[in-house]
From TrEMBL, chain A:
Species, as recorded: Actinacidiphila epipremni
Residues passing through the membrane, by range: 51-73, 93-114, 147-173, 193-215, 222-247, 272-291
Name listed for the protein in its UniProt record: ABC transporter permease subunit
The keyword Transmembrane helix is assigned to this record: yes
Keyword terms: Membrane, Transmembrane, Transmembrane helix
Top-level lineage group: Bacteria
Signal sequence, start to end: none
Pfam families assigned to the protein according to its UniProt record, in alphabetical order: ABC2_membrane_4
Segments of skewed composition (Pro residues): 1-17
Disordered, as annotated region: 1-26
Annotated coiled-coil segments of the chain: none
Automatic annotation (TrEMBL), chain B:
Residue intervals of the ABC transporter domain: 621-851
GO molecular function: hydrolase activity
UniProt organism field: Actinacidiphila epipremni
Record protein name field: Alpha/beta fold hydrolase
Family: Belongs to the ABC transporter superfamily.
Matching Pfam families: ABC_tran, Peptidase_S15, PepX_C
Length: 301, 921
């Protein structure tokens, strides 16, 4: 169609002479559509993905610079915190990075990856071409959710991993000093940090599922991401209302710092178990809502 | 306690759960079991005690005449009956007759404090049991013998033991945080426990508001020692008590009996106990009647308790168990030093104990024989200390179920005892027990003064060792002094060198001086503490301690290990309780799964896939009775009752003005939206969302849809990969040729112009050369040469036997490329058929008019019989004849006075189209 090269338009080959008896195009199998690898490639090169990973990888260095400028932290009035022990060792520094970022910084990537994934396709109009390819709707959601969660997990792992490496270079490899006063041998601390990161991921499932549900409801990616982050903040606010008493136990936000239990002298599982129960339960219901709504949704974007 | 919910509350919780469920969330009610039973009646009375003493008592029941077991509830030292009122009411609600009293010398009771003397306080209890026996609502075991249990904390715990020893009518006891042998408690190893003794004595001799502190278990945060010497008027809560304290007591002895007062003053001045003092206290102790305490005993003792240590409860348990009575031992977290005394849990356990042994309810579990509270860490949601229990079916004593031998290193060390015993080392500090509980977390207040202690340290432990009990070690001490006192402590030292003293406890030992050396086996404080692998044990022997009186004479000591082994008792039978997880932790996820399954199952009914129609297998598209209304416009159909059919090889033009329903029809064809009625069959297969037959269809509808961050080529490649079909089937090269984007293919799509996107999208639709190609307004944004090329592409595409559907409102376009037409307007089919049939309709006549044509004239023409429609055109009149010949029509026009300039058949599709849809476009 280009005006410049007046090359003759190639005539498409004629269709097979034999009458088609198959209901599908050759080689089409619903189970092979939009494989995880393909979806990952579609998402990976996005500027948004790059920026999130870049920021998370940069955060430890920003903190190291901050400690270099501000000096080693001193024990605050309210007793020691993770911040105060940040420069004790690489492990401490990784824990500190988790501590400063778990409340909000790590919520955003999860909400972003899960909230943007369907809504942005709708916004680009590419959703309808995927669905007409056809990628079965449940499979599309399943693949997109899996990839979004995988990206979220990668983001959650990236921060402490970079922090551990950078912190070890900056402050050395040694025992992890606990804010409660004890220490953990460096070898013991590593699995603990892994548990903490795994729990943070599980506790973010509710945010991810909420964002994902909103993502299937709107064509505006920012609406889905913002909605999920906003509702997470509302949860935090509600958790601050101590008058709610034990009702706060069913707020996911109530358990968001339970991963710190992994960095106590004795692993304390009960909070993490409760937080996992709450988060997974909400996530399951929200994910079901997403599938239920999208299954029969009229795609008009 | 009645565990049933009141009806109303259960209903409310159910409604709440339902409401939350409807809202799409998970509902979890965390409702506390409300106490049942009726209101508790309290009767206060001054009852006669022994020897003319009057006891201030309160009697609690829920009323009624049914006979029930009784419980005597004692209070702590320095307190009064008021402090146990809450527990008394709870027990009364649970079906007991509860009698509380202020011990003689305390509160409003008269008399003097005799430290639970057999003829004093103990006899008082017998009078109270007499009184209970006379009550009509108290169950009796025999005449004058009520069914009665005794419990209390600290001073009140001791009276429960003594009452059981002196009065056979007591049926069960639950002593909490109390002593077995007061001489051992205050003079351990003949060393005077001066700090606690002083606090003890002052709280009985002055009526201070802080005096209730010594109850040991009134709060969760622990006791704070009363401020000695806080002068001014006594401010006791009970005016009578205050008056008694102020008026009738002597300023030195307070309300103590003269004998106790003299004992205290003598020992406190000497700084060490004498044999008479020991004998006097032992006679007052439960240990004096050890062989007579034969009733079931729940023994609760604090781990952070340097006043009444675990050794006291151990002796208690051993003696009572030796008498054949059931015994359970519960080591709570806190104690007299402070910390969490777990009152709520222990109150429940005491109630169960009495349910079993007073009510005789054999279905009640009295809990494990041995339970130790361990510190699990901090609660990250509110910063409180998490406590966990460890249970065993047997109480092994302080030597543990087994023992490990840990080799300590370190040669003889020379240390000094400072003159006057100052500065002292610090181990336990009354009131600091809440920190003691944190010792397992690494917090410690303890302090040793350099030069005054010897340290012996183990190698890093190869495996974690959980000490439960009292470790022992044998040491040799050489000194020229007459005698010496050492305080043994066992520290937990981290690999980083940080030392913590578990529970903050030290054990004193008095050693006869000998220059050759005295060998002594030292029993270290009983604690429950986990020494992690890699940590070291450090035995410290110090010459001073803040809590004790050590010799004032300066001395030099040489301390060495007689045997390098430290015997560390462990109890492997203790197994940690499953954490106190709320029930919903396990219930919530399955509940959520159920909700999710319900959501998925009850979604909009699934349309059962209609079977393929083999007769239509060769027909690219057949639409039958298709209707669609969008949700927001319930009255207006986007598509209504649309039916048409497309045969192979056709290029079908779907024509209609904006809003005619063309795009809606195409979206339904792609399975993007669901029709309300009717069906679409593509090659005989019914179309539904994601129908596999859609893979034979290529579509470009309402503009391009690309990932803007990827290049044009990457977009096409990834789209094809998303279809999951073999790469070779894509015919990528041919599609790219049609797109004709050249180098721009390698640029990100976001840099494309609209025309470039359009071409790329058409190329995407043609990937894999689908049997049915749908192009929606394909020439939008293309320039004229590209439009011509597009036209050729479509014609050639269909020439191969494939089918193309083009929608457009650019009618001239369609006329040149399409073989067939479907004309739509306002959702309805207007006409369908070959282009020639529609365009070449001879019935359409275009009349050129000279000058203006008035609308009323047009209406008149339209109203003629034999004329279907008549529309005013730019410079004339377009009419569709229905039965009238063109000649007759011209004649009629002239007759109506239309200034006819020229007449001809209209062959332009645009005009035909306007005519067909009634000129409203």
């Amino acid at each position: 169609m280009s005006a410049a090269p007046p090359a003759p338009v190639p005539a498409p080959a004629p269709p097979p002479a034999a009458e088609r008896t198959r209901a599908t195009a050759d080689g089409y199998r619903p189970g092979r559509t939009l494989r995880l690898r393909v979806e990952a490639r579609r998402q990976l090169r996005r500027r948004r993905t790059m920026i999130v990973f870049g920021l998370l990888a940069a955060l430890p260095f920003i903190l190291i610079a901050a400690f270099a400028i501000g000096g080693t932290p001193k024990e605050g009035r309210g007793g020691p915190t993770l911040i105060d022990t940040a420069t004790a060792s690489g492990g401490n520094f990784a824990a500190t990075c988790l501590f400063v970022s778990a409340g909000f910084v790590l919520v955003v990537p999860v909400a972003l990856f899960c909230g943007d994934t369907v809504a942005s396709e709708a916004g680009w109009s590419s959703l309808r071409y995927l669905l007409a390819a056809p990628v079965p709707r449940a499979r599309l959601l399943g693949v997109k959710l899996t990839v979004a969660l995988a990206f979220s997990a990668a983001a959650l792992v990236l921060l402490p991993a970079v922090a551990l490496v950078a912190g070890t270079v900056a402050y050395g490899w040694g025992d992890v000093e606990l804010p409660t006063g004890g220490t953990l041998a460096a070898g013991d601390a590593l699995p603990r940090v892994v548990v903490a990161v795994a729990y943070i991921f599980v506790s973010q499932l509710v945010t991810g599922a909420l964002a994902f549900w909103l993502s299937t409801k709107t064509d505006a990616p920012l609406g889905a991401v913002g909605g999920a982050v906003g509702l997470t903040i509302v949860g935090n606010v509600l958790d601050a209302v101590t008058a709610l008493g034990s009702w706060r136990d069913v707020l996911p936000a109530h358990w968001q710092f339970s991963w710190a239990d992994a960095l106590q002298p004795d692993m304390e599982w009960s909070s993490m178990l409760q937080g996992t129960s709450v988060s997974v339960s909400y996530a399951v219901v929200l994910t079901a809502l997403a599938f239920r709504g999208f299954r029969t949704k009229d795609i008009v974007s | 306690m009645d565990l049933r919910w009141p009806r109303r509350r259960r209903w409310l919780a159910g409604a709440g759960a339902l409401a939350v469920l409807v809202a799409g969330g998970a509902a979890v009610g965390t409702a506390a079991a409300a106490g049942g039973g009726g209101p508790v009646h309290r009767t206060d009375a001054m009852l006669p005690g022994a020897g003319g003493v009057h006891l201030d008592t309160s009697y609690f029941t829920t009323g009624g005449s049914a006979r029930r077991p009784a419980v005597l509830l004692g209070h702590g030292f320095g307190g009064s009956k008021a402090e146990v009122r809450g527990q008394a009411e709870a027990l009364a609600r649970h079906g007991y007759a509860v009698l509380t009293w202020s011990a003689r010398g305390f509160g409003a009771s008269t008399g003097q404090i005799g430290l639970n003397a057999p003829g004093g306080e103990v006899a008082d209890v017998s009078r109270l049991i007499d009184w209970l026996a006379a009550r009509p609502d108290v169950r009796l075991d025999g005449p004058g013998d009520p069914r009665v249990g005794v419990t209390g904390v600290s001073y009140g715990g001791a009276i429960s033991l003594l009452a059981a020893g002196y009065d056979h009518r007591v049926d069960a006891i639950a002593p909490r945080e109390t002593y077995w042998n007061l001489a051992d408690a205050l003079f351990p190893a003949d060393v005077y426990k001066k700090l606690w003794s002083g606090i003890f004595f002052s709280s009985g001799s002055t009526a201070l508001p802080g005096a209730a502190a010594l109850t040991g278990g009134t709060g969760t945060t622990g006791a704070t020692p009363p401020a000695p010497g806080a002068g001014g008027a006594p401010t006791g809560t009970d005016p009578r008590a205050a008056a008694a304290a102020a008026g009738m007591t002597d300023p030195l002895c307070g309300r103590f009996t003269a004998g106790i007062c003299a004992l205290y003053q003598r020992v406190a001045q000497a700084g060490r106990p004498d044999a008479a003092a020991r004998a006097q206290l032992e006679a007052l102790s439960p240990s004096a009647v050890a062989s007579k305490i034969k009733v079931p005993a729940l023994i609760v003792q604090g781990q952070t308790d340097s006043l009444f240590t675990l050794a006291q409860s151990d002796a208690m348990a051993t003696a009572i168990r030796g008498n054949g009575a059931p015994v359970a031992v519960d080591w709570i977290a806190g104690g007299h030093d402070g910390g969490d005394t777990e009152d709520a849990r222990i109150d429940r356990r005491v109630t169960s104990w009495f349910d079993r042994y007073l009510k005789g309810d054999k279905g009640v579990s009295t809990g494990p024989v041995f339970r130790v509270t361990r510190t699990g860490g901090l609660n990250s949601t509110d910063g409180s200390v998490v406590l966990r229990g460890a249970d065993a079916r047997a109480y092994p004593g302080l030597d543990g179920g087994s023992a490990r031998r840990i080799t300590l290193g370190g040669g003889p060390q020379r240390i000094t005892n400072p003159a006057g015993g100052s500065p002292p080392a610090i181990s336990a500090v009354p009131g600091a027990g809440s920190l003691g509980a944190l010792a397992s977390l690494g917090a410690s207040l303890s302090l040793d003064v350099p030069g005054q202690f010897a340290g012996f340290e183990s190698a890093p432990l190869p495996a974690g060792t959980h000490l439960t009990g009292s470790p022992t070690v044998t040491v040799r001490v050489r000194t020229s002094a007459h005698d010496a006192v050492l305080f043994g402590k066992l520290y937990d030292v981290t690999p980083g060198g940080k030392a913590t003293l578990p529970a903050g406890l030290a054990a004193p030992v008095r050693i006869a001086g000998s220059t050759d050396g005295t060998v002594v086996t030292l029993r270290l404080p009983a604690v429950d503490h986990d020494f992690a692998a890699g940590h070291r044990m450090r035995l410290v022997l110090a010459t001073t301690d803040l809590g004790y009186a050590s010799p004032a004479a300066p001395a030099s000591l040489t301390v060495s290990l007689e045997q390098p082994q430290l015997t560390v008792p462990v109890d492997t039978a203790l197994s940690d309780d499953a954490g106190p997880l709320p029930w919903w932790v396990w219930a919530l996820p399955p509940f959520a799964l159920l909700v999710a399954a319900a959501l998925l199952v009850t979604g909009r009914r699934r349309v059962r896939p209609r079977p393929a129609d083999p007769a239509l297998a060769a027909v690219p598209l057949q639409i039958t009775g298709l209707s669609k209304r969008y949700a927001k416009s319930a009255d207006r159909y986007a598509v209504r009752d649309l039916s048409f059919r497309v045969e192979p090889g056709q290029v079908l033009g779907l024509l209609g003005p904006n809003g005619a329903g063309k795009t809606t029809t195409l979206r339904m064809l792609m399975g993007l939206i669901r029709p309300d009625e009717g069906e679409i069959r593509v090659f005989g297969e019914a179309v539904r969302p994601g129908a596999p037959v859609l893979s034979r269809l290529g579509a470009f509808v309402e503009g391009a849809g690309f990932l803007p961050h990827l290049t044009g080529r990457a977009n096409l490649e990834l789209y094809w990969q998303a279809t999951g079909r073999p790469a070779a089937d894509a015919r990528m090269a041919e599609a790219l040729e049609i797109a004709g984007l050249g180098d721009a293919l390698e640029r990100a799509v976001r840099t494309y112009s609209q025309g470039m996107r359009q071409r790329l999208a058409i190329a995407q639709a043609m990937l894999g050369l689908p049997d049915l190609l749908i192009l929606d307004e394909p020439t939008n944004g293309l320039d004229p040469p590209q439009i011509r090329e597009m036209r050729e592409v479509m014609i050639r595409y269909a020439a191969g036997g494939r089918t193309v559907i083009v929608s457009s409102h650019l009618l001239a376009e369609v006329e040149q490329s399409c073989t067939h037409l479907v004309v739509m307007d306002r959702g309805r089919l207007v006409t369908a058929g070959p282009v020639a049939d529609i365009v070449g309709s001879a019935d359409t006549v275009l009349v050129g008019v000279a000058g203006e044509l008035e609308q009323q004239l047009v209406d008149k023409v339209a109203g003629l019989p034999g004329v279907a429609t008549a529309v005013r055109e730019e410079d004339g009149l377009l009419a569709v004849l229905d039965g009238m010949t063109p000649a007759q029509f011209v004649a009629e026009l002239v007759r109506l006075g239309v200034p006819v300039a020229r007449v001809g058949p209209h062959r332009r599709l645009e005009d035909a189209f306007l005519t067909l849809i009634g000129g409203s476009a």
